[in-house]
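Here we describe the complex-level prediction in full. Unlike the single-chain runs in Section 2.1, the two entities below were treated as one system.
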Amino acid sequence: MKAGLHKNKKGKSDKIGYLLVSPYLLHLCLFVGFPIVFCFVLVFHKWDIVSEMEWVGLTNFSRLFQDKLFFKAILNTLTFLLVHIPLQLIIALFLAELLNQKLKIRGFFRASFFMPVVVSGVVITILWDQIYAQDTGMLNLILAKFGMPKMRWLTSPELAMPSIAIMATWKNVGLYIVLFLVGLQAVPKYLYEAADLEGASHWYKFTRITLPMINPTVYMVVILSTIGGFSLFIEPYVMTGGGPMNSTLSAVLYIYNQGFFFYHMGYAATLAFFFAAIIFAVIMIQRKVIEKESAY
Amino acid sequence: MKKLQQYSLLVFWTVLFIYPFLWMLSATLRPEREIKGFGIWPSEVSLYNYAQVFEKIPILRAFLNSIFVALVVTVAVVVFCSMIGYALSRLHFRGRDAIFYIVLFTMMIPFQIILIPLYILMVKFGWVNSYLALIVPWMVSALGIVLFRQYFQSIPKDLLEAARIDGCNEVQIIFRIIWPNSIPTLITVGILTFMTTWNEVLWPLIVIRDTHLMTMPQLVTIFAVGGQAENQLGVQLAAATLLALPVIVAYAFFQKYFIESMATTGLK
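The structure predicted for the assembly as a whole is:
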């Protein structure tokens, strides 16, 4: 009797289970599965959506490998990451350490640092466009007060991408402060107490206890900022349009232009496909490097 | 002494994060010629810039569009993902674990690869220039499923068994037993989804061309980039302020929830 009931319940459970996950399966097939499969189809075609699809074999790939602008866009994105990630890690860790003490109104400080995270990137970009303005911008006026020369934050090809990276750091660092705070609070206190007994310096405690203990958080922050950096779009789109001299053209912005400005659907899909492979490779490399570091 | 040093450092950084917002707000209230430098005390206050924004673009309509889209997506994600998360954590059926691995796998796929084909799909469906394109593809989220599944696993088995004995079916269990016991996760997934949808710009830029259907960040972007603002800084900044205001107000009231919710993206 009992076994029968169980069996019956299980059969019913099967049906209701499938029923409950059916929206997911439908969504998966339509909006994830199909696009991925269709991307594979598109890379072998030339298509502007309006006319017939035209089979072009590997032409898109040979075009990609000769496309200097695309490689410039990838290089620009890497420049962004090169400035953004270290800056993000250092500032986030520094402020998280600062907040990880008994302080009054700690919550207020945390909330202030976090504020740019919740505000739309469009707002941040329009605001920083003014902060970076050459003659009237806040930043150059502050520099001038200290007798320093004005910088061409957004108009010099060398400085424009780092400027965008600094802005992105300002916007996102609050999230990483919170993540590091969670990590820091999980480090057992007795480790520091033991080190104090031995008379260890601040720096020693930081490098030998804190850093190894929060290594998983460091990894997470690096990965999240990398993914964020590879999605860079709205900042250059609003601020510089990819200029000056394509120095802030990000890969996503280039794919967007190819797809939705020129309607080169096949080629844009090829670019996206190749770019996704690069993202994957970079994240795998980061994982290897950080795992190696934590082996100590 | 050390405390003083700490506090002054913290105040310095707080100013660094907050002051630009205050400056922006004050700039929008000033006449054009006074918007420079880093002072924030206006000599005269006027709402001229805001009037200009309302005159030039349908910002109110865009605000309502954004609210509508973000609300529908959020409700859908919370309902669907809690159903799916429940099935994947508390029911037993063939292929359950395989489905969960697929969910995890899809979280690793870069969105760039989906973008072009998904747009083409919208074209084929005839959804370009309609709310459907803004809503339907985002009604299920892998992160939402993972968060719900994780939380539901901690709900005591006895609770569910008792409900079954009382004659609840599985759907009733989800909404009457599971939901009231999962408020924190409902809030987390809700805030995360709402914020992501509210702030999304790239997708609306691709699928919406009709000004009256644009979302608020999209409209403000086009206003700033497309030259409609005619290089008037005050007007551009006023549009940006209007876009930021609802989120900042919500954040002021619920900052703890915002911070905790967004920190869970770290779980990825």
